[in-house]
Amino acid sequence: MLLILSLTLFVIVSLSLLFFFLRWYSEFVFRNLVWRKHNEAEYMLSTGAAPLAWRRKLIVRAGGGRAGKWFAMARSKRLINYFERTPLVDGPETRGALVGQLKDVRRQWAGMSWSDISDPQ
Predict the structure, then answer these.
(1) What does the pLDDT read at residue 64?
(2) Residue 60 near residue 54, CB atoms below 8 Å
């Protein structure tokens, strides 16, 4: 009887821990794969500047300059590709408007230096 009770308790605790781990992991993946991209796009559209996370990476890796501009242009292109394909956009009209605005920001960046791209005025 004691053995059955202890095994039952072990299974319940193990399944609970597994559930909480899976919930945490799914939130972690969602935050890193989806939420971050949507926040970066919103920041780009509202300020016209590169998101802070991009600027931080560049300061650590390359110190900005031409490498910074190249990195920002590449990341913005990947962001545009994501929004062209994701099912998480409201509809075709919203998708077209969002992608168009992101492409406009990217076109503006093409004629700017890294210091201008990284400075949210």
Answers:
(1) 63
(2) no
Q: Hey, what amino acid is at 110?
A: A
Q: Which three-class secondary structure state does DSSP give residue 19?
A: helix
Mean pLDDT per 10-residue segment, the chain (121 residues): 88 94 92 89 92 76 73 92 90 93 94 82 67
Q: Check the CA dihedral 32-82-101-116 and report its sign.
A: positive
Query: Would you state the structure tokens that stand for residue 58, as one six-digit string?
Result: 């560049």
User: Does residue 10 belong to any structural domain of this protein?
Assistant: no
Task: Report how many domains make up the chain.
Answer: 1
Q: Which long-range contacts (CB under 8 A, 24 or more apart) does 59-67 make?
A: 64/114, 64/115, 64/118, 65/114, 66/114
Indicate whether 82 belongs to any domain: yes
120: Cα separation from own chain's centroid: 19
Which residue range is the domain that position 46 belongs to? 34-117
